[in-house]
């Protein structure tokens, strides 16, 4: 069970948004690469990097900065945010990225996901963000009429490596993850699921460990680490002890 720190980049800085709202940001560092290096040193096996400007603009904005993080890290980096064409995926893959996360485009152009999986086998994950079980797109600005579980079932045969599932009603709210929605999503697919959003205490992380048998194999933690509600090394050791 992987404990994955998040590095969200907006305006070249490391920030956290509340429920994905662009006007509700907290800046934690002016140097995202330095922040990624910190989590690397703390023992992270994988770091989740998001180009928030890219997610809102629909195109990569902080690509050079993210490539520098990939180059300088000793651990795996997964990247999302505004990735809407094969050229961008290829640029990240050539830089050494572990996984590329496709979000909005997976819901709007599923055939693109199929092509990306064919071109870059094992490198493509789909990020599915949901509010009340329905898929949210375009940096969470819009909510579609498609169920998150239906989108997962549609993506699964295309060759994606797994899913990142975010219940956006809990993201950045420090209220704990929505275990029921995460369980329902994980049970709807046979692929690995990384849960994101809502972890604010060690107990929340241990609750997610209980979903391991449903297919949840990792958790992304953001705000709680930056607010120091959770100590990364402490939560990592406790999760590893309980996950077996």
Describe the structure.
There is one protein chain. The chain has 244 residues and is α/β, with parallel strands linked by helices. It has a single domain, classed as TIM Barrel (Alpha-Beta Barrel), CATH 3.20.20.70. It is built from 11 helices and 12 strands. Strands 1-4-5-6-7-10-11-12 form an 8-stranded parallel β-barrel, surrounded by 8 helices. A hairpin with a 7-residue loop joins strand 2 (13-17) and strand 3. The chain starts with a strand and ends with a helix. Keywords: Amino-acid biosynthesis, Cytoplasm, Histidine biosynthesis, Isomerase. It is found in: Cytoplasm. Its main location: cytoplasm. It is an enzyme of class 5 (isomerase). Pathway: Amino-acid biosynthesis; L-histidine biosynthesis; L-histidine from 5-phospho-alpha-D-ribose 1-diphosphate: step 4/9.
SSE layout and pairing:
Elements: E1 2-10, E2 13-17, E3 25-29, H1 32-42, E4 46-51, H2 52-57, H3 63-72, E5 76-80, H4 86-95, E6 99-102, H5 104-108, H6 110-119, E7 124-131, E8 134-137, E9 142-147, H7 148-155, E10 163-167, H8 179-187, E11 193-196, H9 202-209, E12 216-221, H10 223-226, H11 232-243
Parallel strand pairs: 1-4, 1-12, 4-5, 5-6, 6-7, 7-10, 10-11, 11-12
Antiparallel strand pairs: 1-2, 2-3, 7-8, 8-9
Helix pairs in contact: 1-3, 9-11
